[in-house]
Write a structure and sequence with these properties.
The complex is a heterodimer of chains A (328) and B (358). Chain A is an alpha/beta fold. Chain A has two domains: 188 residues, Thiamin diphosphate (ThDP)-binding fold, Pyr/PP domains (Rossmann fold), CATH 3.40.50.970; 127 residues, Rossmann fold. Chain A contains twelve helices and 14 strands. In chain A, the strands form three sheets. In chain A, strands 3-2-4-5-7-6-12 form a seven-stranded mixed beta sheet, sandwiched between helices. In chain A, strands 9-11-10-13-14 form a five-stranded mixed beta sheet, with helices on both faces. Chain A has a two-stranded antiparallel ribbon with strand order 1-8. Chain B has one domain: Rossmann fold, CATH 3.40.50. The longest helix of chain B has 26 residues. Classes of the chains: A alpha/beta (328), B alpha/beta (358).
């Protein structure tokens, strides 16, 4: 039996189950314990698990993220919350030079089973410094894993896989998705874990493939409905879910089926996830393409604050529909 | 909180306060009232859905910005974090441009691009408005370095909250400030809470936060932020040390915010007791304290208090009307102000592609 949970509740349930499963799992971050989380993802967990398992940190991202990485080398399984993924830059050295490289630099003697999680998105009126999307950035560092769930079930299944993974996993949520609801399998029906590296076909179609991750999946699904109802175009929506490892087979399969591709990526156009996916498609499925690969990214500027125009900078159903129509 | 006691020094006797004319005192009082009315108006329109994102209110802390910035000369500069409305108005930015920025309008001080946390007025020596905790602390160091480099006899006042003292960037800045002899004054506005976490639960310290400066051989002091005279007297000493001797100072100004970390901070009455908030409002409110003081001195009258309050309320209401009626940015506006060269269509901007929209 499935239940309807919010994305926030599904994540919390995943964290709670992992806290129960493994006594080495510890949640840590700014306001995660006594305040119940800035976005209430960890609500009730401090009360349930106590000071040892759910820990408030000072506003010291470089310090506490680095501390988590060090502890993970000794076998602790820290799940660190960044209140915003945008604050990654304060801890960047720890996140890329330490977490990504320690296994390699030690010739495989050390590993780093840490999870760093928190929201990474635009569209919430908090301006450029709080609206960075670093999934493409971190996926560019071998040694790191990155996933970006779009639905409550994926959030739960992937956070559990991330915590069990023996490598550093950077887990990117979305403040605009926390309240979204969806079906999540009942824990009584078994342990629900979604392996990293598996994409998910969120909508089957025949005419064009929309390949997306995170909130762009939701926007693509909305665009697919408009395309179907107003233009008679049957779009397929592939949710990457995991950026690294990346489900290249699923990408090539949908391209070979529809022969037309629009990549929807809330990041900026230069480099990043959609640029990488475009490269893979042209390399491995060039002959299957009936049209050039197109993208809908955020308009190439720092995130504008103004609530009047913010949504226009991001991929939205209208921009996606227009891009698909331009393929014809 | 430093509690006011009967044995407390009276800082009206300090030379920098003796130099204040009655008109200037009324002006400083008026500035504090304007900041409060402006923010009360902002809160009203934030709650009405006219703004996006966060609103970090300064209400309760007004004497810090007004007292310190009142000491600024032509070559003194200011930079702060995201709780920036008070500093912006104190340096002389207008309510209209500030309110319009929060409404996300073209007429805002950052054209609607920055929002509440990112007010700037370089023409008034005000360098923002910064969103990342302690991210401004190396910038303040740099502004002060620039002043010394350019041979100006000025200093930079760099504000930070009590939560920011635990960021590495701040400690690195203190070390360089002391090592290089940089004319920077770090002003820790200690409102007791690092977001929803009390000072005791977020910082390790002996006695006070400013004392950490000793580790870097930097002078420090603790200031009662509810007393504008004390704020001015002690900050003046630090600024003179910076200007004349190129030596940094860390000031810890004890203050309080009546509202949460931001208006979105729904727990702000859970991690603090109602008694604590009420005590500050009743006994340590910087505007009430200064108002009482000026009434005693005969500088203010009850009538003047009323008219100043009314004028500030009207000014704030007018700024909200201005903001509401101003035009929103366009899609084309998203792509300007990214690069200086492309904005100015220079020769450099014609070589290679700067933007990658399809």
């Amino acid at each position: 039996m499935s239940r309807i949970l919010t994305y926030r509740e599904a994540l919390r349930e995943g964290l709670d189950e992992e806290l129960a499963r493994d006594s080495n799992v510890v949640l840590m971050g700014e306001e995660v314990a006594q305040y119940n989380g800035a976005y209430k993802v960890t609500q009730g967990l401090w009360e349930k698990w106590g000071d040892k398992r759910v820990v408030d940190t000072p506003i010291s991202e470089a310090g506490f993220i680095g501390m988590g990485i060090g502890a993970s080398m000794l076998g602790v399984r820290p799940v660190m919350e960044l209140m915003f993924w945008s604050f990654h830059s304060v801890a960047f050295d720890q996140l890329v030079s330490n977490a990504a490289c320690v296994r390699y630099m030690s010739g495989g003697l050390c590993n780093c089973p840490i999870v760093v999680r928190g929201p990474a998105n635009g569209g919430s009126g908090v301006g450029a410094t709080h609206s960075h999307l670093p999934e493409g950035l971190f996926a560019a560092f071998p040694g790191l894993k990155v996933c970006v769930p779009a639905t409550p079930a994926d959030a739960k299944g992937l956070i559990k896989a991330a915590i069990r993974d023996n490598d550093p996993v950077y887990f990117m949520e979305n403040t605009l998705l926390y309240g979204n609801t969806g079906e999540v399998p009942d824990p009584e029906d078994g342990d629900f874990v979604i392996p990293l590296g598996l994409a998910d076909l969120k909508r089957e179609g025949t005419d064009v493939s929309l390949i997306a991750h995170g909130r762009s999946v939701i926007q693509s699904l909305a665009a697919a409905e408009i395309l179907q109802n107003e233009h008679g175009i049957n779009a397929e929506v592939l949710d990457l879910r995991s950026i690294r490892p990346l489900d290249v087979d699923a990408i090539l399969k949908t391209v070979k089926k529809t022969n037309r591709v629009v990549l929807v990526d809330e990041s900026k156009p230069f480099g990043g996830v959609s640029a990488m996916v475009a490269m893979l498609i042209q390399e491995h499925a060039f002959d299957d393409l009936d049209a050039p690969i197109k993208r809908v990214c955020s308009i190439d500027a720092p995130a504008i604050y103004s609530p009047h125009i913010e949504n226009e900078q991001l991929p939205n159903p209208a921009r996606i529909v227009a891009k698909v129509l331009s393929l014809r | 909180m430093t509690s006011a006691s009967s044995s407390k020094l009276d800082f009206i006797s300090s030379p920098i306060n003796q130099a204040l004319t009655p008109e200037r005192k009324v002006e400083l009082y008026t500035q504090m009232v304007r900041i409060r009315k402006f923010e009360q108006s902002a809160l009203k329109y934030y709650n009405a859905g006219k703004m996006g994102g966060f609103l970090h209110l300064y209400i309760g802390q007004e004497a810090v910005a007004v007292g310190t910035i009142s000491l600024g000369g032509a070559d003194d500069h200011f930079i702060t974090a995201y709780r920036d409305h008070g500093h912006a108005l104190a340096v002389g930015m207008g309510m209209n441009e500030c309110m319009a920025e929060m409404f996300g309008k073209q007429t805002g001080c950052s054209k609607g691009k920055g929002g509440s946390m990112h007010f700037f007025a370089p023409d008034k020596n005000f360098w923002g408005g910064h969103g990342i905790v302690a991210g401004q602390t190396p910038l303040g160091l740099g502004l002060a370095y620039g002043l010394k480099y350019l041979g100006k006899e000025g200093c930079c006042l760099c504000y930070l909250g009590d939560g920011a003292v635990n960021q590495g960037a701040f400690h690195e800045s203190l070390n360089i400030a002391s090592l290089f002899g940089i004319p920077v004054v770090y002003v820790i506005e200690n409102n007791g809470y690092s977001m929803g976490t009390s000072q005791e639960r977020s910082s390790a310290f002996n006695g006070c936060l400013a004392q950490r400066a000793e580790a870097y051989a930097i002078e420090w002091d603790v200031v009662d932020g509810s007393d504008l005279y004390e704020v001015r007297a002690k900050t003046h000493i630090a600024m003179e040390r910076a200007r004349k001797q190129h030596k940094p100072t860390v000031l810890e100004i004890d203050t309080y915010r009546y509202y949460g970390h931001s208006v979105a901070d729904a727990n702000n009455k859970k991690y603090r007791t109602p008694e604590e908030i009420e005590n500050y409002k009743q006994n340590h409110d910087p505007i009430s304290v200064f108002q009482r003081r000026l009434l005693e001195e005969g500088v203010l009258t009850e009538d003047l208090v009323k008219s100043i309050g009314k004028a500030a309320t009207n000014e704030a209401a007018a700024s909200a009307k201005f903001a509401d009626e101003s035009p929103a940015p366009t899609i084309a506006d998203i792509s300007t102000d990214v690069y200086w060269e492309t904005d100015h269509q220079t020769a450099a901007s014609k070589v290679g592609h700067h933007f990658f929209n399809d």
